[in-house]
């Protein structure tokens, strides 16, 4: 097959940042994607419905003329979040989900949750009103090895939470392990998972073999090869509980190429080309649409996009820039380490 037409995809986990960075990156998403769930980990974070409304306005202003793109807003859960404000945000149609960052787990997460008990009133309200919780699923306990943090989170935080609140809809974001895939598959209801582009392509060797490669460092960190294979199987299976969340997370190069580099990989610009390659390699091109365009909206109770996009396989590799220039500084683009022949028409 050299051409495939699918419903326009959505990105169920995206970092757009703010200001000059927002302006520099948004076009790479709005060119291909109809909607995206926008992560709230700005500095300061998007905590209230009023914050989210103001941030949404800034995003909408930055969308390039001619692109049709809908940002789906989230709130950053803190120990002081008001359940009434969250409910108000959902009722007004502005808020699609609330995001749980365990304090210290990832970029700009220090204002997140330390004690889950303190978040229970909000979580109970969310269960009642059917508002999903998006979860960065890693523990931050220093004793737990960084490669085990997702598995330990499932056992010690997520599973107890789901037993306590079975009616709460939970999205396990950027699943990186076989453990995560198995846990989602075993759930009877109210659990789904997003998978990033890069975790389908790299394992932890990409970060460490032949020298330290900061542009392959993200959180949750890429794991062993067998975990990557489990993610590929889940993504290409057609199982409605798995869908695309790129976690495209731009940081300027000086903040990644330094003594303590930031976590995050920038994939918005070449995600669809990477995914077509991956799905073709696994003989599953016919399931790309489910993963990128159908399963996500179904989980969030939305219709798929009405428009379509066409992917074409070119004889020559498609040229993507090594980095994009933004008003905030240069951002290196994810290099899948193989040539990309699939192009969005
Ligand atoms: N994925 C990342 O490595 N980084 C994200 C935060 C996150 O999604 O955990 C970021 O905001 O930079
Ligand atoms: Zn995260
Ligand atoms: Zn993220």
UniProtKB/TrEMBL annotation:
<feature type="binding site">
    <location>
        <position position="174"/>
    </location>
    <ligand>
        <name>Zn(2+) 2</name>
    </ligand>
</feature>
<dbReference type="InterPro" id="IPR004721">
    <property type="entry name" value="DHOdimr"/>
</dbReference>
<keyword id="KW-0665">Pyrimidine biosynthesis</keyword>
<comment type="subunit">
    <text>Homodimer.</text>
</comment>
<keyword id="KW-0862">Zinc</keyword>
<feature type="binding site">
    <location>
        <position position="13"/>
    </location>
    <ligand>
        <name>Zn(2+) 1</name>
    </ligand>
</feature>
<keyword id="KW-0378">Hydrolase</keyword>
<feature type="binding site" description="via carbamate group">
    <location>
        <position position="99"/>
    </location>
    <ligand>
        <name>Zn(2+) 1</name>
    </ligand>
</feature>
<feature type="active site">
    <location>
        <position position="247"/>
    </location>
</feature>
<feature type="binding site">
    <location>
        <position position="247"/>
    </location>
    <ligand>
        <name>Zn(2+) 1</name>
    </ligand>
</feature>
<feature type="binding site">
    <location>
        <position position="251"/>
    </location>
    <ligand>
        <name>substrate</name>
    </ligand>
</feature>
<protein>
    <recommendedName>
        <fullName>Dihydroorotase</fullName>
        <ecNumber>3.5.2.3</ecNumber>
    </recommendedName>
</protein>
<dbReference type="GO" id="GO:0004151">
    <property type="term" value="F:dihydroorotase activity"/>
</dbReference>
<comment type="function">
    <text>Catalyzes the reversible cyclization of carbamoyl aspartate to dihydroorotate.</text>
</comment>
<dbReference type="GO" id="GO:0005829">
    <property type="term" value="C:cytosol"/>
</dbReference>
<dbReference type="GO" id="GO:0008270">
    <property type="term" value="F:zinc ion binding"/>
</dbReference>
<dbReference type="InterPro" id="IPR006680">
    <property type="entry name" value="Amidohydro-rel"/>
</dbReference>
<comment type="similarity">
    <text>Belongs to the metallo-dependent hydrolases superfamily. DHOase family. Class II DHOase subfamily.</text>
</comment>
<keyword id="KW-0479">Metal-binding</keyword>
<dbReference type="InterPro" id="IPR032466">
    <property type="entry name" value="Metal_Hydrolase"/>
</dbReference>
<dbReference type="GO" id="GO:0044205">
    <property type="term" value="P:'de novo' UMP biosynthetic process"/>
</dbReference>
<feature type="binding site">
    <location>
        <position position="263"/>
    </location>
    <ligand>
        <name>substrate</name>
    </ligand>
</feature>
<feature type="binding site">
    <location>
        <position position="41"/>
    </location>
    <ligand>
        <name>substrate</name>
    </ligand>
</feature>
<feature type="modified residue" description="N6-carboxylysine">
    <location>
        <position position="99"/>
    </location>
</feature>
<feature type="binding site">
    <location>
        <position position="15"/>
    </location>
    <ligand>
        <name>Zn(2+) 1</name>
    </ligand>
</feature>
<feature type="binding site">
    <location>
        <position position="219"/>
    </location>
    <ligand>
        <name>substrate</name>
    </ligand>
</feature>
<dbReference type="Pfam" id="PF01979">
    <property type="entry name" value="Amidohydro_1"/>
</dbReference>
<feature type="binding site" description="via carbamate group">
    <location>
        <position position="99"/>
    </location>
    <ligand>
        <name>Zn(2+) 2</name>
    </ligand>
</feature>
<feature type="domain" description="Amidohydrolase-related">
    <location>
        <begin position="11"/>
        <end position="313"/>
    </location>
</feature>
<feature type="binding site">
    <location>
        <position position="136"/>
    </location>
    <ligand>
        <name>substrate</name>
    </ligand>
</feature>
<dbReference type="GO" id="GO:0006207">
    <property type="term" value="P:'de novo' pyrimidine nucleobase biosynthetic process"/>
</dbReference>
<feature type="binding site">
    <location>
        <begin position="15"/>
        <end position="17"/>
    </location>
    <ligand>
        <name>substrate</name>
    </ligand>
</feature>
<feature type="binding site">
    <location>
        <position position="136"/>
    </location>
    <ligand>
        <name>Zn(2+) 2</name>
    </ligand>
</feature>
<dbReference type="InterPro" id="IPR002195">
    <property type="entry name" value="Dihydroorotase_CS"/>
</dbReference>
<comment type="pathway">
    <text>Pyrimidine metabolism; UMP biosynthesis via de novo pathway; (S)-dihydroorotate from bicarbonate: step 3/3.</text>
</comment>
